[in-house]
Amino acid sequence: MTNSEFLSVIKQSFAKFLKVKTSRSTAKLKDLHGEIARDLQVRLGSDFVIKSQGFNDDKEGKINGRYYDKNVDILIKKDGVCIGGVGVKFVMQNYLQNSNNYFENMLAETANIRTADAKVPKIR
């Protein structure tokens, strides 16, 4: 996907946001996530399975976490094993507050996923 094509997808997502009039709807994200997933599939090839809303079966993928399993925006699998996930955030309102919240949430989600195989210490 070229930069111009990517900007076009962002415009399309923003137009859906304006139409539904709420940032709570996933409608604005389906096109964006789907196009990123489609681009990854083209670049990575048929050895990889990409799961995302707006692409193939229109479902997010789930990654095992240390404390809880996490649905991710775009999941990348090879040979049935999850090898990566992509989180895409699209801040639409109250940027100053939400950009920090999204960043902190994504750090916590990453830590949860990255430590999935670590032993959870027992509380005494």
Structure overview:
- The structure is a single chain.
- Helix 1 runs antiparallel to helix 2 (27-44).
- The strands form two sheets. Strands 1-4-5 form a three-stranded antiparallel β-sheet, with helices on one face.
- The mean pLDDT is 87.
- Strand 4 (74-78) and strand 5 form a beta hairpin.
- It is globular.
- The longest helix has 20 residues, at 95-114.
- The protein is an alpha+beta fold and 124 residues long.
- The protein has three helices and five strands; from the N terminus they run ααβββββα.
- It has helices spanning 3-20, 27-44, 95-114; strands at 48-52, 61-63, 70-72, 74-78, 81-86.
- The chain has one domain.
List keywords for this structure.
about 120 residues; two-stranded antiparallel sheet; three-stranded antiparallel β-sheet; alpha+beta; 5 strands
Strand content: 15-25%
Radius of gyration: 16 Å
Quote the average pLDDT: 87
Counting helices, strands and paired strands, the structural category is alpha+beta
How many H/I helices?
3
> Which spans have pLDDT < 50 for at least 5 consecutive residues?
none
Oligomer: single chain
Shape: globular
Helix content class:
40-55%
Side by side, the strands of the main sheet go 1-4-5
Q: Tally of extended strands?
A: 5
Indicate how many domains the architecture comprises.
1
Distance between the termini: 53 Å
Main beta-sheet annotation? 3 strands, antiparallel
Following the backbone from N to C, one meets helices and strands in this order, namely: HHEEEEEH
